[in-house]
Amino acid sequence: MDTLILRKQLVAKKHPEEVISIQGLTKYVPQPGPMTRKIVEEAINCSLKRMGLSRLDCVQFHWWDYSDKRYLDALSHLSDLQAEGKIRELSLTNFDMEHVKEIVSKGIKISSNQVQYSVIDRRPMVKMAEFCDSQGIKLLTYGTLGGGLISEKYLNAKEPRGPEELNTESLRKYKEMVDIWGGWSLFQELLQTLDSIAKVHNCTIANVATKYILDMPAVGGVIIGCRMGVPGAEHIKENLSSFDVSLTPDDINKIEFVLKRSNDLMQAIGDCGDEYRGSFHQQR
Fold this sequence. Notes:
With 284 residues, the chain is α/β, with parallel strands linked by helices. It has helices spanning 3-13, 16-21, 37-51, 70-83, 97-105, 128-135, 162-165, 169-181, 184-201, 205-214, 236-240, 249-259, 265-268, 278-283, and strands at residues 25-28, 56-61, 87-93, 112-116, 138-142, 219-222.
């Protein structure tokens, strides 16, 4: 949805002071090429104009090819624009540990890194979380519910196959992650464990899976997708219930008992974001 249209809808439905409190996250994913001050500033000015703002709440920067070092030029310019007041927070999307460290070493202040993180994909806890925690960088996580696979809908269900059953890009992507992680049988064991914990806490599988990640070091928030305006597809109240769940050490041990029999995704895929780059991405 166009950000200006969304903003106008919010203004129409809410009081102005409520709209001010809502923060927008703006992705900046430039095509490979020169990253001059003019090019970067024009992109930011375009977003400011479209949203009718004088300052962007958060710019999330993504770069496809690490061998092209001009991402450092882009981030340097973004940092300058932040200092000038056009950007409140400067963030990253799907950067791995090595390159987050490199960026920080250049004196560029990063507030968060958006990465895939779930009970299935726990790569951020291997290296990323500790460093980010030490630098005050938060992890904004996505894929936490595996595109909807980590839910009651797939508990004790037959393995979905083909485009008719995996009918969204998200489902196809996260089903591939399940396959690499350990397969459908082990995944069912995980869902059954999450369900047993959910019943004790009077909540859903999604609540347990979400709180498991929210409780991890350096995690600042979980991004849960929804289909706005589709009846029964938003799950807003249900998702907010995740904050009321307090997982016990026994709950964590039960989850870990299943997870320790899964495959090492760091070894199978690589670090955070490598699923979009490198050899794994080329094989897909």
